[in-house]
Amino acid sequence: MKYSIRLMREEDIPQVLQIDREAFPTQWPHPTHASFKNELNNRLARYMVAYKQRKDSLETTNQPTSESFWQRLPLVKLFAPVKNTSSYPAASAGQDYILGYSGFWIMLEEAHLTTIAVRETYHRQGIGELLLISVIDSAAQLGARIITLEVRLSNRTAQYLYEKYHFRPAGIRRRYYSDNSEDALVMTTETITSDSFQSHFQQLREAHYQKWGETFVYAHLNRS
User: Fold this and answer.
1) Helices and strands of the chain, counted as H and E runs
2) Which of 17, 160, 163, 178 has a CA-to-CA distance to 56 between 20 and 30 Å?
3) Which of 22, 120, 129, 150 is catalytic?
4) Active site residue 209
5) Mind listing the pLDDT tens digit for each residue in 144-184?
6) Which domains does the chain show, CATH number per domain?
């Protein structure tokens, strides 16, 4: 499957809200159209989407009637369990079909990754990892030296992905998550523009390409 990365647009928000509630069903309060619109206008924030161009109006966000081999396996999910989201709007005919999104804030020389989420039916296709690659690229272009994030202590699958990209534990935020008072693990990178980080990063980028085939990432993910 070929897919692309670009900056999020206001027209993407209905689909992004759908993905957000699917990926984080216990989060409270949920983001709204207005809150995402504010983020898109925030000079400190960057939001990106993974998408594919729609060829018709038949694709929906409901579970397909014929599941793939991978979807039938009891695989551990990278993100939170999924709830039924059929009541939320799908993309209209001709509109890009959003597969996942990511967001981060940048303040001085630190970028803070706030979220990565992928549609449940598109898990385990390299989309979340490509979004992370795009965050690292974009943060470096904006002059960030390090990237930080919080992740649930119980979410070892997500932690494995971050560790793969040289995020390391940096502390604990007690009772960070409001839904169940779970602690958060704080993770941070070394200097992302250093030779050692970039050498490792480029190897991982190439490995992603070799595994998942050609995808397109916009060269300029930063607003002018």
Assistant:
1) 6, 8
2) 17
3) 150
4) no
5) 999 999 999 999 999 999 999 999 999 999 999 988 899 99
6) 4-57+87-217 (3.40.630.30)
